Amino acid sequence: MFRWQISLAGAVLTALLLAALFPPFQVTILAPVALTPLLYAMALEPDGKQRFLWGWFCGFLYWLIVCFWIKDVLAAYGGLTGPLSWLAVLLFAVAKGLHMAAFGWLSGFVLNRRWAIPAVAALWTGIERTHGPLGFAWLTLGNAGIEMAAPLRVAPFLGVYGLSFIFAMLAAALAMVALRHDRRQLAWLAPLVLLFVLPVAGPRQGPTAEAAAVQTNIGADANWTAEEKDRVVKRLALRTLQESLDVAKPKPSLVLWPEAPAPFYYYDDEAFRRQVTETARLVGAPLLFTGVAYTAQKEPLNSAILLGSEGQLLGRYDKVNLVPFGEYIPAGFHWIQKISSEAGNYAPGAGPKVFIAGDHTLGAFICYESAFPSYIREFANNGAEVLINLTNDGYFGGNFARQQHLMLVRMRAVENQRWVLRPANDGITTSIDPAGRLWDRLPEFQLTTGRLRFGWIREKTLYTRFGDWFAWLCLAAGLAGVVVTQIPSYRPAQ
C-alpha cells in the first residue's frame, strides 16, 4: 500500500472514531483507540508537510461531522440558506482543522522515540487546551470519559484534560504495538494503575436543598409585541408561584428561570421589573433569571440577575464567553447575519462573579460558557457552593447539539465536585451531581415547572484551586520533546 493511502485511511478513521465518541453516536468505549489510526499513519510519513496536510484533513472531517448542527442553526436563525449555510460550516471546519494539523505534524517527530507514548499524549493535551483561546471551545477527547468511573477519578485533580491525556496515551501505546516497536515502551502505561488509588468522584452525601425551575419553552422566532411580552411574563410568574408555593413540596431555596430568547430588560422596563420583583417577594426565595443590560457605552450585555427573597437586587453577572455567530461574529465571518435579534454585537462582561443569597453562595454562568473548564472553575474557587448553567438550547432545535452541550456541563460538575443546576429554555432542564450523574430532569419542548434537588458544597478540588496547569505543562513538555528530536546527536565514525 502506498504511503498516501495509509495516511488517508488513518486520517479518515481517526476522524470517524472521534466523532463516534459524542452525540448522536456516543460510543465512548472507542476513546482509548480513536487516535491510533492517525498516529500509525504519521509514524510512517517522514514528510512534515504531508503530516500537516493529513492531520488537517482529519480535523476538518471531524469538526464537520461533530458540529454539523451549525449549518442548521445558521439556516434557521442566521438568515443563511442553501449554499451559504454550507459555506459557513465548511469554512468553520477548515479553520478548526488547523489544531489537528499541528498535532499531525508535531507527533511525527516523536513517534519513533522511546518516550513516544507520553510525548504524544502531552502534545495532544496541550494542543487541545488552545482551542478556547484560539476561537471556539467545544468537546475535547476527555469528555468521552464522563461515564467511565476509573478515568473520571482524575477530573477533580487535572480536569477534563487529564482524561484526554490518558486516552491519548492508550492510543499511542496501541500504535506502538501496531508499528512493532519495542514492547518495553508500554511500561509508560504503568502509572495508570494509580487511578484506582484516587477517590471515586461523586457527592459525599445526597441533595439537601431544592430549586424551583421554570422551563419557559419560548420560541426563538417569537414576535415580541408589548402585549405578547406582558402575557409571557405573567404566565411565567404564575407558573413560578404555582410551583414554589405548592404546599405538598418543601419551600425552594432558589427559583430559576433559564436564558430565554425574550426581550427582558430589568433596568429599562419598569413593568417587567415590577413583575419579577413581586414574584420574588411572594415566593420568598431568591429568583435568578437572564436579561439584557448595557455597558456605559450602550453596548448590550447578556446578563444573569439575582433578586433576593424580598425582591431586592442582589447582583448581576455579565456573560464573558460569547457564542460565535450568535453573540458576536468571528473575524472573517462578518458576512453572516448573526443569530441574535439584539441590535449590534454583545459585549463581554468583566469576569466571573459569585452571588450571595442568604447564608449561601452561587455561581451562575450562561449557555456556551460551560465549554470553558478553566473559566467555570473560577466560580467555585471564588466561593460558589453550587453552579448554575442558565441556558437556551432552543437554537439547536431537536438535533444532537443539545446532548453535546449537556456532556460538557456534566464534566464541569465532576471537575469542581459541585452540584450543577441547569434550567434550560426548552430542555434539557436537569440537576447534575458531583459525579456527573443526572438527577431530576424535566420533559423537553414544553412549558413546565419542576424541582431540581441539589446540595451546597464548600470544599475545593485541586482542579478548582489550580486550574489547567497540567494542560499547559503538557503543551510545554510536548513542544520541548519535539525540539529535542531536532538536536543533532554525535555518532563516532565507523
Give a verbal description of the structure.
- It contains 15 helices and twelve strands.
- By secondary structure, it is an alpha/beta fold.
- The protein folds into two domains: 3-200 and 468-485; 209-456, 4-Layer Sandwich (Nitrilase/N-carbamoyl-D-aminoacid amidohydrolase).
- The strands form two sheets. It has a six-stranded mixed β-sheet, covered by helices on one side. The protein has a six-stranded mixed β-sheet with strand order 6-7-8-9-10-11, with helices on one face.
- β8 (386-390), α13 (401-416) and β9 form a beta-alpha-beta unit.
- The chain is globular, with a radius of gyration of 24 Å.
- The two termini are 35 Å apart.
- 51% of the residues are buried.
- The model is unreliable at 340-344 (pLDDT under 50).
Sum up the structure in keywords.
Nitrilase/N-carbamoyl-D-aminoacid amidohydrolase, globular, 2 domains, alpha/beta, 15 helices, six-stranded mixed beta sheet, 494 residues, single chain
Under CATH, the homologous superfamily of the largest domain reads Carbon-nitrogen hydrolase
Task: Quickly give the CATH architecture of the largest domain.
Answer: 4-Layer Sandwich
Q: Main beta sheet, described? A: 6 strands, mixed
Rg measurement, Å? 24 Å
**How many beta-strand elements?**
12
SSE string:
HHHHHHHHHEHEHEEEEEHEHEEEEHH
> From the structure provided, what is the oligomeric state, counting identical versus distinct chains?
single chain
Task: Figure out the total of helices.
Answer: 15
Strand order of the largest sheet: 5-4-3-2-1-12
Mean pLDDT: 92
CATH class placement of the largest domain? Alpha Beta
Helix amount: 40-55%
Strand content: 5-15%
CATH topology of the largest domain: Nitrilase/N-carbamoyl-D-aminoacid amidohydrolase
